[in-house]
Amino acid sequence: MPEVIALIAAAGKGTRLGAEVPKAFVMLRGRSLVERSILAMVTSGVVDRIIVLLSADMMSFAQDLFSRRGLIDSRGYCQGIPVHLVCGGGERADSVWEGLKAIGSHKKGSVVLIHDAARALTPPGLIARVARAVAQGHKAVIPVLPVTDTIKEVGEESGTAFVRSTPDRSRLRAVQTPQGFDLAELYAANLAYFAQETPDFIATDDASLMEWHGQRVSCVKGDPMAFKVTTPIDMTLAEHIVDEAEPTIFDVPDTLKKDADD
């Protein structure tokens, strides 16, 4: 298995959740969303190092929180996997680019995983599945789920919305994270993207950027547990899931259980 580096995007404000702190730092049954995402990466058994992308105004808070939790010191909670904090940019794509530049030198064939901190209950097995698909030679890999709702393409005319078309949902998929890439290829795609003086394309995710750069994007099976906590309803669902499954999600060391309950 080549080197695997995880970039966790945690710089967003998450206004739709209506919390007093940025979404990544909202507590879910005693542990923040970003902490849970970090621990999922650790538990996957395939990640060698982790970079958390943060807004500048949350850097000091995160350093303090992670230190108390044993995420960036020698207490072993991350099983020796280094966790680094990097200041992101104004948009998600800017943050990922900062993360890629922070990685520095890397071995040929290294794998990078881009993950949303808000997908805090992503199963470690899904993370491993994506990483292994990239290691097997796929330059870009995304986890997907079938779309169950009927989807409409809509337009607007004179202030009234109307249906333009109804895509065949059998060909549609909902995309999750982590998205996995050959590190050198993703770096090259970002380099070309940010070199544009007049952008002719806005990347909505890293896979779309790879498509724009001419790379084929492969798909692996996603998981319903990798849903994104975006709204209060999502948080309620996440709380119910954790209430049922917390003892089996993460093995929390006894020395940290008090911190987890603070």
Instruction: Calculate the terminal CA-CA distance, rounded to whole Å.
Output: 38 Å
SSE pattern: EEEHEHEHEHEEEEEHHEHH
| SS summary, helix count | 8
Rg computed from alpha carbons, rounded to a whole number of angstroms = 19 Å
Apparent shape: globular
**Mind describing the biggest β-sheet?**
8 strands, mixed
Assign the CATH topology: Spore Coat Polysaccharide Biosynthesis Protein SpsA, Chain A
Mean pLDDT value:
89
Just name the CATH architecture: Alpha-Beta Complex
Low-confidence stretches: 248-262
Structural class by sheet pairing and helices: alpha/beta
Number of domains: 1
Oligomer: single chain
Portion in strands: 15-25%
Catalytic activity: 2-C-methyl-D-erythritol 4-phosphate + CTP + H(+) = 4-CDP-2-C-methyl-D-erythritol + diphosphate
Function: Catalyzes the formation of 4-diphosphocytidyl-2-C-methyl-D-erythritol from CTP and 2-C-methyl-D-erythritol 4-phosphate (MEP).
InterPro entries: IspD, IspD/TarI, IspD/TarI_cytidylyltransf_bact, ISPD_synthase_CS, Nucleotide-diphossugar_trans
Pathway: Isoprenoid biosynthesis; isopentenyl diphosphate biosynthesis via DXP pathway; isopentenyl diphosphate from 1-deoxy-D-xylulose 5-phosphate: step 2/6
